[in-house]
Amino acid sequence: MPAEVTAISGRACAYYLAGRCARTRSQAESAAAFCPMMQARGKLGAQTRDRLNRLDRLADPNDREVARRHIMQKTAEAIGALKCPDFVPDVHGQICIHQHLIYCQLLLPPCPGRCEDFLPRAKPGPRAQP
Ligand code: SF4
Ligand code: SF4
């Protein structure tokens, strides 16, 4: 009877993140792992900058200030309304522990074990957990 073949763990790989693989393989695969919350915040930020830039069209400084406050309040409300069911706050309560750069770790593909792209990391980082 042949011996059972088991994959060698990828934990020592530089791309390994809590059981997931962060290696970029294609733009489409990377885009599928973007954190939707970050993307939505980025979009809101761009819309807000655009609106603030257009305030220069108002001649009266008081009108500009009122409009600026209104825009900022609406942006804060819209950001506050963004929810992710998998959000887990870090120790500071601001950033999600699943966030890795612009990606959501939960959306990255699982690491099946040491593969041909294995890149030994110098030292295991805090996220190199099963
Ligand atoms: S779990 Fe965290 S990182 Fe993932 S999509 Fe939600 S907020 Fe973004
Ligand atoms: S061993 Fe391969 S699949 Fe696993 S994290 Fe490294 S590159 Fe990704």
Q: What's the short version?
A:
The protein is mainly α. The protein has helices at 27-32, 36-53, 61-81; strands spanning 16-17, 20-21, 99-100, 103-104. The model has no long low-confidence stretch (mean pLDDT 90).
What can you see in these coordinates?
The chain is mainly α. 35% of the residues lie in helices and 6% in strands. It has one domain (16-107). The protein is built from three helices and four strands, in the order E-E-H-H-H-E-E. A two-stranded antiparallel ribbon has the order 1-2. A two-stranded antiparallel sheet has the order 3-4. Helix 2 (36-53) runs antiparallel to helix 3. The protein is elongated, with a radius of gyration of 22 Å. It starts with 15 loop residues before the first strand and ends in a 26-residue tail after the last strand. One iron/sulfur cluster (SF4) is lined by residues 10, 13, 15-16, 21, 23, 111-112, 114-115, 117-118.
- Categorize the overall geometry: elongated
N-to-C series of helices and strands? EEHHHEE
Largest sheet geometry = 2 strands, antiparallel
- Average pLDDT number: 90
Question: What structural class should be given to the helix and strand makeup?
Answer: mainly alpha
Tell me the radius of gyration: 22 Å
Per DSSP E runs of 2 or more residues, the count of β-strands stands at 4
Strand content: 5-15%
Number of helices: 3
Strand order of the largest sheet: 1-2
Q: How many domains make up the 3D coordinates?
A: 1
Intertermini distance: 31 Å
Helix % is: 25-40%
Ions, cofactors, ligands: which are bound? Answer: iron/sulfur cluster
Low-confidence stretches: none
